[in-house]
Amino acid sequence: MLDAELEGRRFIVVSNRQPFAHVHHKNSIRVEKPPSGLTLALEPIVQATGGTWIAAASGSADKETTDANGRVNPRPPGVDYDLRRIFLPPKLHEDFYTGFANSTLWPLCHIAYHQPRFEERWWRAYEQANKIFADVVADEVNGQPAIIFIQDFHLALLPQLLRERCPKAVVAQFWHIPWPNPEAFRICPWRRELLRGLLGNHLLGFHLPYHCNNFMDTVDRELQVRVDHETNAVVSSTGAGTHTRTMVAGFPMSVDYPRIQASANTSAARREAAKLRRQYGHGNRKLAISVERLDYSKGILERLHAIERLFERHPEWREQVEFVHIATPSRTTVRAYQDYAHAVESAVAGINGRLATPGWTPVQALHIYVEPEQVWNWYQAADAVVVSSLHDGMNLVAKEFVAAGRDNAVLVLSEFTGAARSLREAVQINPFATDAFADGLARALAMPEEERRDRMRRLRWRVSHYDIGAWARDLLRAIRQREFDAQDFAIQSAIVSGPGPRQPGGADFPRGGRLACAGSARTADFAGD
Ligand code: F6P
Predict the structure, then answer these.
(1) Distance between Cα 39 and ligand 1 center (Å)
(2) Stated pTM of the model
(3) Separation of 29 CA from ligand 1 center, angstroms?
(4) Fold classification of 257-464 (topology level)
(5) Residue 489: its pLDDT value, please?
(6) Residue ranges of the chain with pLDDT lower than 50?
């Protein structure tokens, strides 16, 4: 099915994070998957297309499992695509990944009240790392037709670097995190360079139309480009009377619904889930869980405050529910993440110290990595899953739980996740509003069985009708559509602009100019609507 959309072209996925790493373990080497919604969701698509994935190395045994051409060789069992690794020098990687990506862009794009830091050295490393990626991708494409599908905020400069070097390729990118409003973004000293880099894309995808609008408003303010609201495109001049056109559209990312549902419903998975319930929910108690990376944007402290408030405002729930939070250590080289991990540990200890009774521990914290299949078993075991992100592009945990959870389980979901736009039958909460959050938890825990089943049925309908396959098909179709639009555009702009004089400074359009405002933005957040 996806092959038809590729029309015989190579499919090359580029991301900083690799889908699997080789790691030394005792006297052997084992394959480890990262705690990354991005790689978990994208892997079935690359498998289905037999494409090539280019990513930065990250495992202790990556070198010795990679051949002279940078390819993992042999491929691990069950992997039907090539993984080409980039080995960034360690200092460069630290400044690029720990520095600019995770200490500048991450807090800049998430309104989670963590101040971004702007270090010249990190910016230089970010530029350098993007250039290294461009060299490897251009080498891989080798002048041939291809679809280059770039992922996320680590590689904002890459599209522009590839446009000239891969003229027969279509360059598309998906931005997995939110795009903030222009006021928030304008504090970045390198905002224009980042925007120009992104406008190298033929297609730029976000989870939500809301993020698309923020992006278009940002380029409109910062660059001399034409924002075409009728076709959701940004038209920029490349000098000498030529223009490039970047289509901007929302594609709400989803999960591999059939696979997750099948895996969570085997008898082995059910047995495992029952074991987890006995171990953590102690049979009669309700079991509420959370699964995330140990990241301040996930609102873990806010959730812990709300849990404590639940037991104050609704004491009938004391000894009746156990909260288990599974938070995988993440970006542990970033200072803010180290501090956050300590703050979470001491908040958990504080709650348990104040409230635990013999035989009842209100909150159990597992700061470990859990394999995806085992996470799905946890979803089967849970009466409720609580997602409390302060700001989240989508949040695939919520959708995975809908695919894997029991028919009578409840989803409690932050209204500041992209997923909240379509998962309307979740109990939606504001993680900043502690009392209301606590009441939301109480409502979820006390919800009658019939209502829980009805809500879960509707949620399942929504996620199953727009799963990761539909997301990938939509994106690839948009790429094809863009190619048709580009042909129309070349004809129209020749008619409209003719050979007339150009604006001073090479700018073809007045700032803030718009082609038309007649159409409405394509709203792809239709999952289940
Ligand atoms: O949510 C943004 C994101 O980059 C995802 O795309 C990815 O799954 C996750 O963060 C993990 O981040 P990292 O690659 O830094 O571990």
Answers:
(1) 8
(2) 0.90
(3) 24
(4) Rossmann fold (3.40.50)
(5) 52
(6) 491, 493-529
